[in-house]
């Protein structure tokens, strides 16, 4: 590469291991001024570890890091990263839940101080939120812990782009759109393009390849802790990118199942009216169906799922079905952070393994082992702590927990956050297979193409169901139209 | 440490080892001061008295494991209440020992149900709910017992003070009880559920755990252990008195924390309870042996406990 491309930061031969796991085995990387760099790869390929090293929150075992073509920085850490104008939006969001949006802004910007700092911090973050996400509807005085995950993500992103005195050279976005719906995601990507055109640099990590292809100038592909491919974005298309990641390019398999729409049988196993006022539509679920919940994020889909699960809504018809839930907001709703991966998987099923009042460890291990292979959880040992897994692999463990249980109905709350494209395809297949055997799924998703796997789709707006589509009727326009109509 | 064998290293990393180490050091310091005199008697007394802290400590440990904000402050009142009621009904008759035990346990269960009723139905934080219920329960004990020390049946008194070769038999029974409760914690659905709730209550509910029922059972269990402890302690100390539970409020919490259970919930430690209870008793014995005045005794007790917790906690984070 010619030298006139000014480098912001350069990594040489960076390695990082966690015990026996080599998260990074020799990465060279150079980030230039004004570029948007896309990083793709499977869960556990080392993307997030690499970002932690750039952000200074993890130290490399070997290798060097240099800033602005200067000599390598010794002991590169968070302070050095901040001084170099590098900001990071981590996949596991890093806001303090007990503080307000404005107070969280102050943490990243210690320049805001003195009398009335709170209102100045509010101004800063609101201006940025308005700029990136017009119509966001977030109050600067809201406690972060009370915000739904999509809004937390929006605050985290806006805060990263808020800088007062230090120049903002590089913003790292690790799965920034995983909880955002299509509209908000596009707002962010538009902002990223604007930011890089104005001379800033961005790293974008995403499993949604379209986002990478439409937003970046250059793409690197990671596998097993190494960079295995690197090209200008114009020299990639979707198929070649998927191929570079080591997955077989699989076209949306509309052929084999789009045709047959299940005919609904006489009796629904569940009927729910999300908003119990007259005139609201009723959601009906029939055995063996995959029912999709659509709409913009934060319009009552998660609440409806949780209420169904906790039996707060009168489930029409029969007595309570055995259910399991796959959490999307895994830190808050899913993970038991002190436990091993195995225990995290077996928690929904351990009642099955009781013999003479005690949980049988062998059976428990068998269940976890079989799902480790089935869904491809990348770990040398299921006895390891759940937090030793990458975000996408933690999500797989939550899938294993629900699918491995005896539940007849499985509720899924935007469950593919951080899951790589290869695994997604496998899980889609698994879901269809399980549905064919009579399991029922209710699936809230923020990704339009996932709705194509559903037999029936209900669109939510402001806590109500506003549209009811079969798969044959499904089009992106219809969903968007229903999501916005009247609003 | 680097040259230590993996087995030893594994043991050294267990949070409960610090309580036993501290107990041993304090014992050694006492015995050196007395020139080896009474070394066995001190241990034997420590086992006897630690027994009662461990019984209530087990119940308290399960409650604390439920996560931040969960604690049972009604333990002393429940002990007094159960002790008074069961002693009065047994009326020193040996034939009534078993009914008396059931009554003590029943008293505990009633208090536990009342506690959780306050917590759940009135949405009062556990610390306030159990504190206020302890006033009610203590008053009930006063009204019922009329302030008189009621003697236990002779066989109960003999059993609770029975020693074989200086080893208190009751301590052996409670060691067995602790072992059973350790298995319950790690191997049963109930124990798993308690630790899951302590890590993340919302995630536990969404994983299908009946959170309300498990919390209910845990509070009732704590009160039942307190009732049992009140019954046995009445037998041991020659009768139920109105302040018999007083020192067990702090003791029940201290043995849990010093024993290596996480105050943040989700992680608990049964072996540590015994180490911590022995340590607490031996510490007071040591300070008494040194002939310190009450003021210095309290200051040193506080400082030493802080030191032990810091040492044990500092290890865990590595």
Structure characterization notes:
The complex is a heterodimer of chains A (487) and B (318). With 487 residues, chain A is of the alpha/beta class. Chain A has helices at 47-55, 78-83, 101-108, 117-132, 149-160, 182-197, 209-215, 238-244, 254-257, 301-309, 330-333, 341-346, 361-375, 391-403, 421-436, 448-451, 476-484; strands at 7-18, 21-32, 36-41, 62-67, 86-89, 170-174, 201-205, 218-223, 226-232, 270-272, 283-285, 290-294, 323-326, 354-355, 358-359, 409-413, 440-444, 456-461, 464-470. A 6-stranded mixed β-sheet of chain A has the order 5-6-7-3-8-9, sandwiched between helices. In chain A, strands 13-16-17-12-18-19 form a 6-stranded mixed β-sheet, with helices on both faces. Chain A has a 3-stranded antiparallel β-sheet with strand order 2-1-4, with helices on one face. Chain B has one domain (16-312): ABC transporter involved in vitamin B12 uptake, BtuC, CATH 1.10.3470. Chain B has a two-stranded antiparallel ribbon. In chain B, a hairpin with a 2-residue loop joins β1 and β2. Chain B is globular, with a radius of gyration of 20 Å. Chain B starts with 5 loop residues before the first helix and ends with a helix. The A-B interface holds A 306, 309-310, 323-325, 327, 332-339, 343, 347-348, 350-351, 354, 357-359, 401, 405 and B 183, 187-189, 192, 195-196, 199-200, 202-209, 266-267.
Strand order of the largest sheet of chain B: 1-2
CATH architecture of chain B: Orthogonal Bundle
Structural category of chain B is: mainly alpha
Q: Low-confidence segments of chain B, ≥5 residues, pLDDT <50? A: 1-6
């Amino acid at each position: 590469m010619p030298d006139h491309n000014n480098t912001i930061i350069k990594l040489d031969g960076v390695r990082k291991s966690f015990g026996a796991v080599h998260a990074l085995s020799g990465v060279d990387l150079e980030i230039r001024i004004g570029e948007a760099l896309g990083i793709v790869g499977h869960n556990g390929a080392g993307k997030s570890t690499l970002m932690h090293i750039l952000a200074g929150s993890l130290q490399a075992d070997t290798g060097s890091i240099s800033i602005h073509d200067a000599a390598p920085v010794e002991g590169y850490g968070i302070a050095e990263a901040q001084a170099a104008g590098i900001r990071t939006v981590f996949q596991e969001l890093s806001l303090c839940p007990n503080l307000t949006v404005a107070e969280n802004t102050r943490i990243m910007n210690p320049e805001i101080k003195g009398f009335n700092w709170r209102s100045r911090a509010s101004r800063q973050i609101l201006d940025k939120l308005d700029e990136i996400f017009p119509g966001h509807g977030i109050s600067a005085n809201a406690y972060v812990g009370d915000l739904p995950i999509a809004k937390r993500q929006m605050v985290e992103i806006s805060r990263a782009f808020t800088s007062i005195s230090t120049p903002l050279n590089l913003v790292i976005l690790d799965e920034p759109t995983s909880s955002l719906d299509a509209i908000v995601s596009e707002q962010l990507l538009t902002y990223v393009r604007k930011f890089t055109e104005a001379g800033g640099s961005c790293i974008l990590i995403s499993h949604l390849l379209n986002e990478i292809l439409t937003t970046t100038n250059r793409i690197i592909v990671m596998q097993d802790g190494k960079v295995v491919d690197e090209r200008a974005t114009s020299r990639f298309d979707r198929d070649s990118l998927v191929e570079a990641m080591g997955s077989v390019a699989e076209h949306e398999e509309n052929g084999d199942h789009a045709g047959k729409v299940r005919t609904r049988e006489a009796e629904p196993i569940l009927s729910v009216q999300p908003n119990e006022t007259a005139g609201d539509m009723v959601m009906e679920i029939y055995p063996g169906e995959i029912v999709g919940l659509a709409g913009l994020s934060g319009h009552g889909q998660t609440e409806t799922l949780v209420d169904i699960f906790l039996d707060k809504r009168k489930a029409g018809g029969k007595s309570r079905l055995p259910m399991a839930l796959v959490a999307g907001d895994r830190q808050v709703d899913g993970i038991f952070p002190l436990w091993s991966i195995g225990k995290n998987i077996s928690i929904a099923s351990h009642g099955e393994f009781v013999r003479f009042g005690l949980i049988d460890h062998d059976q428990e291990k068998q269940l976890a082992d079989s799902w480790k292979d089935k869904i491809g959880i990348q770990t040398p040992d299921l006895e390891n702590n759940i937090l030793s897994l990458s975000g996408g692999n933690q999500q797989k463990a939550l899938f294993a927990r629900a699918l491995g249980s005896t539940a007849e109905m499985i509720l899924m709350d935007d469950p593919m956050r951080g899951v790589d494209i290869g695994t997604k395809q496998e899980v889609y297949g698994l879901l269809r297979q399980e549905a064919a055997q009579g399991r029922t799924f209710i699936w809230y998703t923020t990704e339009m193409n996932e709705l194509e796997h559903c037999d029936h789709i209900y669109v939510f707006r402001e806590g109500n169901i506003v549209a009811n589509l079969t798969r044959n009727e499904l089009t992106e326009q219809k969903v968007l139209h229903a999501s916005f109509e009247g609003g | 440490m680097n040259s230590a064998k993996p087995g030893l290293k594994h043991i050294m990393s267990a949070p409960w080892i610090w309580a036993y180490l501290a107990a041993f050091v304090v014992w050694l310091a006492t015995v050196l001061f007395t020139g080896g005199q009474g070394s066995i008697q001190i241990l034997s007394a420590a086992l006897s008295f630690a027994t009662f802290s461990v019984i209530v400590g087990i119940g308290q440990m399960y409650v604390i494991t439920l996560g931040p904000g969960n604690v049972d402050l009604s333990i002393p009142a429940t002990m007094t209440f159960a002790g008074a009621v069961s002693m009065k009904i047994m009326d020193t008759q040996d034939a009534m020992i078993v009914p008396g035990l059931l009554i003590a346990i029943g008293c505990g269960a009633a208090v536990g149900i009342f506690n959780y009723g306050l917590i759940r139905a009135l949405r009062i934080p556990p610390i306030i709910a159990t504190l206020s219920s302890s006033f009610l329960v203590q008053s009930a004990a006063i009204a019922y017992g009329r302030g008189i020390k009621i003697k236990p049946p002779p066989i109960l008194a003999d059993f609770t003070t029975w020693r074989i070769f200086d080893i208190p038999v009751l301590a052996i029974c409670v060691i067995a009880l602790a072992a059973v409760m350790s298995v319950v914690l790690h191997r049963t659905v109930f124990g798993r559920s308690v630790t899951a709730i302590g890590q993340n209550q919302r995630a536990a509910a969404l994983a299908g755990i009946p959170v309300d029922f498990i919390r209910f059972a845990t509070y009732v269990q704590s009160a039942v252990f307190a009732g049992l402890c009140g019954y046995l302690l009445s037998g041991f100390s020659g009768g139920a008195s109105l302040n018999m539970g007083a020192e067990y409020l702090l003791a029940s919490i201290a043995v849990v924390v010093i024993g290596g259970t996480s105050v943040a919930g989700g992680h608990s430690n049964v072996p540590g309870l015994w180490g911590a209870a022995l340590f607490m008793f031996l510490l007071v014995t040591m300070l008494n042996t040194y002939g310190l005045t009450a003021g210095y005794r309290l200051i040193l007790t506080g400082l030493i406990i802080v030191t032990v917790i810091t040492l044990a906690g500092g290890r865990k984070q590595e």
